[in-house]
Write a structure and sequence with these properties.
The complex is a heterodimer of chains A (556) and B (74). Chain A is of the alpha/beta class. Among the domains of chain A are: 229 residues, FAD/NAD(P)-binding domain (3-Layer(bba) Sandwich), CATH 3.50.50.60; 114 residues, 3-Layer(aba) Sandwich (Glutaredoxin), CATH 3.40.30. Helices cover 28% and strands 28% of the residues of chain A. Chain A is built from 15 helices and 26 strands. In chain A, helix 2 runs parallel beside helix 5, helix 2 packs parallel to helix 9 and helix 9 runs antiparallel to helix 10. The longest helix of chain A has 27 residues. Chain B has a domain of 38 residues. Chain B is mostly helical. In chain B, 59% of the residues lie in helices and 0% in strands. Chain B has 3 helices and no strands. The chains are: A alpha/beta (556), B mainly alpha (74).
Chain lengths: 556, 74
């Protein structure tokens, strides 16, 4: 098989514990340097939090595996300093087309609206994402990555977690105040703590082939129900970096995975699809089954589960790695506040509650897609095919065609961290909403809103003219930034103007922010460090803002 | 009112953030209605379902149009 990628080999070094011959206590240990564990490690370390990251391997993901990174994930990767290399290397796309037999029956656009920095989706082999993350991780002095460090035992002991770690130089012990388990679907941490993960296995098998070829198909996701080249089953095509194409064939439960993986069986399937004349090379082949399941709670005392260790979904919808990275986005600021003594440990229960809610939405959507793609009964199949036939001519049926509902962030509507609205607002930016992006302007340059919010709490206060803000109000705004949990107040204005000293102004020239946030003079948004809306008001009220901040950090 | 062919699923008290959600809610409920039934039982359930909905719609012009579209392109 061909190889477009050279796997890096990361150097193993004996741990400081082994060199010193004694156990050390660390505030945070993360297990698993996959895309999710690395995102958690970078997020914490870039905020200055010392982190130890353990991984049992010494390279990146073998095979392309997770390939679709959604807009929200790219926004998080931007906050982690990783968005640019991923988007530059990957293939951006917004449009997905669904075919039934010979005809296109439905298409969707993941970004129907202009005025957002990132596309709906970027396709990128998982090994590239991990490589970029490791490059970024190595720039962070607070982050200690230990390759070929395999956790062989874990125990919770009062106010700490005790790990035994196996290395080429033998076993050493490590203590952690907090343990983040990012060790994947077969989480060893979960198993060693005797924790259950509940759900169901789907009785179907899929063949994934990564194929290298020159093709001028547009950068879109193409999905076939019952195509002439693979009768009665589905096929999915994705374009990745380096002219690598991902083809996913549904095989059915009775297929023999070992036989199906053999090139002499894979190649004819691809030829039937692409036509005999197109030249291609196989790069990677795998046969998979999947499960839809999650842990009951993602927090177990001092152990926090993220990504596939906490929940698994079917691949239809790209909700695996995407939701895992969103877990870390939700967790890291909370963990930092708890470690710094600024919030009680109960804030971490909100991590579990919010991300369990999101996991259930992901599980629901990916299960629905699976049920549509692989109907289990004659009646389900009849309904599915009736939808596909009606979809040719009828918009209502097109909306029912479900070839995967692609990863979008969850609105955390029920979260205890939200302060309910006390006034009417139009639009979707309700408390608990993941923020919409918008084009903005500051100090003579254009930028994207989501590039300048997050990491800490912020309040956006809409003013008609920044130059007319009185000194007393300005002083109150500045004081918020100096509080124990700082809130940076930024003015949002339709026009530029000199602001009082120490205050920044985002100029909403195009009016997209005003439109998307239903913002008028006086409107104030309190934003969480993970770019979610915590609270909003029609007028700035310092006491209300303090109360909402206390609520968003479990300090009340 | 003519036969509605635009997406029309909704539920009082439910706020949808994604356009596909109300239709997916319906479709899941539909498939769930058939859970654990034999093919014969499912056929009977489907027939009853059509009769219930037809009476609810009532307007024969709409029903005739739906029946025509359902038979077209077989």
């Amino acid at each position: 098989m061909l190889s477009t990628y050279r796997y890096p080999k990361f150097e193993y070094r004996p741990a400081p514990e082994q060199l010193a011959g004694r156990t050390q206590r660390h505030p945070v240990v993360i297990v698993g340097a996959g895309p999710v564990g690395l995102a958690a490690a970078i997020d914490l370390a870039q905020s200055g939090q010392p982190v130890v990251l353990l991984d049992d391997d010494d390279t990146v993901s073998v095979g392309s595996r997770g390939v679709c990174y959604a807009k929200r994930t790219l926004e998080i990767l931007d906050r982690l300093g990783l968005g640019e290399p991923c988007v530059t290397k990957g293939v951006s796309w917004n449009v997905g087309r669904t075919f039934f037999r010979e005809e296109e029956v439905y298409n969707f656009n993941l970004r129907p609206q202009e005025g957002h920095k990132r596309p709906g989706m970027v396709n990128l082999q998982q090994y590239y994402l991990e490589e970029f993350e490791i490059t970024r991780a190595r720039q962070l002095p607070a982050l200690d990555i230990r390759f070929r460090n395999k956790v062989v035992s874990v125990a919770q002991d009062g106010d700490k977690v005790i790990l035994q770690v196996e290395t080429p130089d033998g076993i050493y012990a490590l203590e952690a105040d907090w343990l983040v388990a990012a060790d994947g679907a077969r989480s060893g941490i979960r198993r060693m703590l005797h924790l259950d993960v509940e759900g169901k296995i789907f009785k179907d098998r899929f063949l994934i082939a990564d194929v290298v070829m020159k093709a001028d198909y547009p950068p879109e996701r193409w999905f076939w129900f019952d195509p002439p080249f693979h009768r009665n089953q589905s096929v999915l095509l994705h374009h990745q970096a380096d002219n690598v194409w991902r083809i996913d064939f549904q095989l059915g439960w009775d297929a023999d995975p070992e036989e199906e993986k053999k090139p002499e069986n894979v190649i004819p399937r691809i030829k039937a699809m692409l036509g005999d004349e197109r030249e291609f090379e196989l790069e990677w082949v795998s046969v998979y089954t999947f499960q839809c399941r999650r842990m009951h709670s993602f927090r177990h005392d001092r152990v926090l589960f993220v990504g596939d260790a906490a929940h698994q979904v079917s691949p239809f919808g790209a909700r695996g790695a995407n939701s895992g990275i969103q877990d870390t986005d939700n967790l890291c600021w909370k963990l930092k506040l708890v470690i710094d003594g600024q919030a009680p440990a109960t804030l971490l229960d909100s991590y579990s509650d919010e991300r369990v809610f999101a996991a259930d939405e992901n599980l629901m959507n990916s299960t629905r897609s699976t049920d549509f793609i692989t109907p289990k009964t004659k009646t389900s199949l009849t309904f599915r095919n009736a939808v596909l036939e009606l979809a040719r001519d009828n918009p209502f049926a097109r909306a029912l065609v479900n070839s995967g509902r692609l990863s979008v962030p969850t609105f955390l509507t029920g979260s205890v961290l939200n302060t309910p609205d006390s006034a009417d607002f139009a639009g979707d930016m309700i408390p608990g909403a993941p923020m919409d992006d918008a084009p903005m302007h500051e100090d003579g340059s254009d930028f994207w809103l989501l590039d300048r919010v997050g990491n800490g709490f912020m309040a956006l206060v809409h003013v008609a003219d920044p130059a007319r803000l009185d000194g007393e109000t300005a002083a109150r705004f500045r004081a918020l930034a100096a509080a124990p949990i700082p809130v940076e107040v930024v003015l949002v204005a339709p026009v530029a103007g000199p602001a009082p000293a120490g205050l920044r102004v985002f100029v909403d020239r195009a009016g997209r922010y005003a439109e998307r946030y239903d913002s008028q003079t006086g409107t104030t948004y309190l934003l969480r460090p993970d770019q979610h809306v915590a609270a909003r008001w029609r007028n700035f009220d310092a006491a209300a803002l303090q109360a909402a901040l206390a609520r968003a950090t479990c300090n009340c | 009112m003519p036969l509605t062919l635009q997406p029309n699923f909704h539920e009082a008290g439910t706020r949808y953030f994604r356009p596909f959600s109300p239709g997916d809610d319906f479709y899941e409920a539909l498939i769930e209605t058939h859970r654990d039934l034999s093919d014969e039982q499912s056929d009977l359930v489907n027939a009853k379902l059509i009769l219930l909905l037809a009476n609810h719609i009532g307007d024969l012009a709409v029903l005739r149009e739906a029946m025509r579209l359902a038979r077209a392109r077989l």
